[in-house]
Specification:
Helices cover 28% and strands 17% of the residues. By secondary structure, the chain is of the alpha/beta class. Helix 8 links the parallel strand 10 and strand 11 (315-320). Helix 1 (105-118) crosses helix 8 (301-312), helix 4 (164-172) packs parallel to helix 5 (193-206) and helix 15 (526-538) packs parallel to helix 16. The termini are far apart.
Length: 593
Amino acid sequence: MSSSAQEPTLFGKQERPAPRKPAPALQLPIARVVLDSPLAHIDRPFDYAVPADMDANAQPGVRVRVRWSGQLLDGFIVARGENTDHVGELAPLERVVSDERVLTPHIAEVSRQIADHYGGTLSDVLRLAIPPRHAAAEQADPPVASEPFPASPNVSAWRHYDAGAAFLRRLHSGEAPAAAWLAAPGLTGAEDWPAALAEAAATTAAGGRGAILVVPDHRDVERVCAALDLVVGETAYARLTADMGPSQRYRSWLSVLRGQRSIVIGTRAASYAPVANLGLFAVWDDGDDSLREQRTPYPHVLETGRFRSSGAGAGLLVGGFVRTPVAQQWVETEFLRPISPNPQSRQHQVRVTIAGEGHEQDRDAGARAARIPSLAWRTASEALKSGPVLVQVPRRGYGIGVSCAQCRQAVHCQECNGPTVLPDSGESPHCGWCGKQVATSECTNCGSTQRRVSVVGDRRTAEEIGRAFPGVRVRQSRLGQVLDQVDDAPAIIVATPGAEPIAPNGYAAALLLDGWALLDRPGLEAGIEATRRWMNAAALVRRSAAKTQIVLAGVPAHGEVRSVEALARWDPIWLARWIWQTVVNCHCLRPAA
């Protein structure tokens, strides 16, 4: 140690020698790093010097830690270079977190496009695209190798569609077809939509490319996984869902990154899966709210699929029982080609009847005003002879609204004027806002003290139907207690929209109650959303020769509301086209003549 280093300073302490600067890498000494920060003004790569001892591991795509503005931040190396535009000396990389190249060039490009499209930052999208690192998962043994894909996979589920065979041929040959697929209702087993998705993925894999299948929730994931097990085997695909544990999810994601799995099935978390040589990106039921990310910048899986398929030269498949306005716009602009059921399949579609319009005895105001009209009771009674009956109720709970029994005026809370709800049979009503008990008092309009439930929920509906059909099993499926599947024994299944369980051979009939509640939802897309929920439930009904299989109650005449008419005609394309033309022509913005 030199004598100068031992001399005391003004404060009686020795000066600390300046740290030695690491030697730079000999080749490509500059690393361009994207910082993991939501700040918009640093949404760009920053240059850092690569020390010689990190040269081998500091490759594009790896996680690194750098110092920025006096603090340590995580980031990703997106490129290595020779020169920099920075004036002055560059700060070195602090360390390479892992030598796993988790950010592929394709995902980096797509993430940048999504961030620009939605007005977000690249780091926000990368946080959605790349799961948090789990060191133990990186060190774990690789999964069992998948079996070879069949050269000619089964494609029987696509025989119900005119352009289905041509779409699969183009996928197998390495082309990039883009299609809007309108699925046929009433199909079960090996002909249902999960089997069709599995066959499309198997056909793509047989051609040497990968596939990503994105569905709304875990129940749909389970159905597609069951179909994939039959078509390609249990070890041929990877699952990616948000409800998986950190270790399990990261290990499954690594199996895709390392090329050990070429087919991915999952919820919106799977839309950024790093599939090598992507050949198909498929989205099922793109109108479902769960396919839109709940965190900034709120990207939708449909747009993610568009960017990924365009950047990778892959096929794009947008499927569902309805056609959303966005998908219809892409069809009208010829970005997507339609795939629809063939005439033979359309002849055996489910039959829908609007309460008050089906039979002569039902064509009166009383049948239209009744919550469960006589047609619905007759349909359910007849269908219970051959299988389960589905009853869709839009609202959860027992009594959602309470009103005067004589004049029908709504009862409100005396404290906050909130709506009054009835939690259960025999209990006292309370306020739905502040939770305080609402005392029984005279009606301000007529003076009556009698009350009635004005808006009925699923639990009250199950109670009423149980009394009407003694001896018949009544089961409920709702948020918090969702049934995945029911057997084919006669039973009544009361479910809220989106929680309808699957019957192996389809339901014998379906009753869609309180249709007004779906039509009265706030938002510009209430009509198409109501049609989507009705059709998703009606599609679970088996094909039959019966005159009436689905009864829709509590809605105006189908000639008055286009959403109701689209269900009665089973023509969702007509509704989507009308909405698209209305937006294009701006009829709603033109002043009256």
